[in-house]
Write a structure and sequence with these properties.
The protein is mainly alpha-helical and about 325 residues long. It has 15 helices and no strands. It is globular and about 55 Å long. It starts with a helix and ends in a 5-residue tail after the last helix.
Length: about 325
């Protein structure tokens, strides 16, 4: 019984129950929510955020953050559009875009690791800079012509199922990230780094290389999200994915990842991802616009932080104390 109580008295369990309750409400009260088409569209619409939240979780656990992820997505989309417009085959353009994303993430990492600048300030600056470069390259124009095989990936589903192809990269990467974070020495190093950076340094962990690698990974996955986003909308432009940072950080923190580092699991983050996707989809079907949705998501983030802080004390009281 104590073990079962310890398992149930967790933020992940509460979040799972909340998510299932919201889904049940949406199925019963929101018209057209449970249709095959809507569920497929909802899954497709969260594809890019789902991808980016994976490295974001690792960064926050390591006491870092990357506010430039949506701008890297947009700039990657612009680079892909320009390369395709110039006649480059997709097979060559996609690796170059991924390499560019890794380089942008590495740029963030170098500023943080080598120059000792706070990641919050660095990525706040590069958030504007990377999107500005996108405007310099493409201006206010857009690229809308891509190979049919690429756009088919953005709109079709897997073998006639409601699962869109755009969510498949996330479904492939999520288990890998979960295993690496929670079952490997690399994951333990990330937790140690976030829990106590001084301990991580004196225990022999290559702190600088680890932090730099996390930023490179963030840029790489953000560029992959940019490719998926471009395929889904068949559109490359500099203002793609504006405001995605709010949802991504909300998902990570709502999922139980500590803003102070050293704590969090991807299981809770996955529940939070579904919860945010369902709320946005239900609000959209109820004809509540994007600005109002953003307000609600922002309030949800603040409420989650307050509730998470309170729940720690509640869950600790529920857990049996050793004598």
């Amino acid at each position: 019984m104590p073990d079962r109580l310890r398992h149930l008295a967790s933020w992940e369990t509460f979040l799972a129950a909340l998510t299932l309750a919201v889904i049940l409400y949406a199925v019963l009260a929101v018209p057209n929510f449970a249709t095959r088409f809507n569920l497929s569209q909802a899954a497709a619409g969260v594809s890019e955020k789902a991808l980016i939240v994976l490295p974001m979780v690792l960064l926050i656990i390591a006491r870092e953050i990357d506010l430039s992820v949506a701008s890297i997505l947009a700039l990657s989309s612009v680079i892909l559009g320009v390369l395709v417009q110039a006649g480059m085959p997709m097979a060559a353009a996609i690796p170059l875009v991924l390499l560019a994303g890794a380089a942008l993430g590495g740029f963030n990492g170098v500023l943080v690791v080598r120059f000792g600048l706070p990641s919050l300030v660095v990525t706040l600056g590069t958030m504007a800079m990377f999107r500005g470069i996108g405007y310099i390259i493409l201006g206010s124009a857009s690229v809308n012509t891509f190979p049919d095989s690429f756009t088919d990936f953005g709109i079709e589903s897997v073998l006639g199922t409601p699962i869109p192809w755009t969510i498949v990269p996330f479904l492939v990467l999520a288990p890998i990230f979960a295993v690496v974070l929670q079952r490997t020495p690399a994951g333990r190093r990330i937790y140690v780094l976030g829990g106590n950076p001084a301990t991580a340094l004196y225990s022999g962990i290559r702190v600088a290389r680890l932090r730099l690698g996390l930023f490179v990974l963030s840029g790489l996955v953000s560029s992959l999200a940019g490719i998926v986003f471009t395929a889904r909308l068949a559109n490359a432009r500099a203002n793609n994915a504006v405001g995605f940072e709010l949802d991504i950080i909300t998902v990570a923190l709502l999922g139980g990842v500590s803003v102070f580092g050293g704590r969090g699991k991807l299981t809770g983050v996955l529940w939070a991802l579904v919860l945010i996707a369902v709320i946005r989809n239900a609000l959209g079907l109820s004809r509540i616009g994007g600005d109002a949705q953003g307000t609600i998501i922002g309030l949800l983030l603040i409420g989650a932080l307050l509730l998470s802080n309170a729940s720690k004390h509640i869950f600790e009281r529920l857990r049996p104390r050793s004598i």
